Amino acid sequence: MLLTDRQFWLLVHLGLGALYLHGFGAGLLGLSQPGRRTRLASLGAAALAFAALASVVTGTWIIYPWYRAILPPGGELALSPKSWLLAHAHLTAWHSFGMEWKEHIAWLSPIFAVAVAFVMIRYRHRLQDVVETHQVLRLLVILAFVSGLVAGVLGGVLNKVAPNVFLMQEGKEENR
User: Do residues 49 and 110 lie in contact, with contact meaning Cβ atoms separated by under 8 Å?
Assistant: First the structure.
């Protein structure tokens, strides 16, 4: 089985995003037990920050240009997802709200994750002394997870689910 370059980069992007979102529980657990396994928790936070950053970077500069690409004429199916959504008046909100919001909220995830990783690595030995710092770090981890989850769900819905559902509805209308 051979993968195209687009399929390969999509798998890399999705894999990094899944790694990040699945690591959320471990990151929260590492923060909930101050003083125990601080080195491991710091390395885990750094790995999660890398996964979040790499996922957003591949999404922004590799995957997203394909979303908005102008493809050669060849029928409606040859349109990019953005052009396809904008070509159907009742679906323009999917792009104007969904994708525009997704582009921006996705960047919040690595920002929060890198902040947590930096604090955990820099102040690793002193974290157990300040309870308030743990509370703030837990909040940042939760915000990073939620922003990553929202971006992932919107990306999946916009690029895969919405066009396929609409095509299935069009097919039913043609069979009538």
Answer: yes
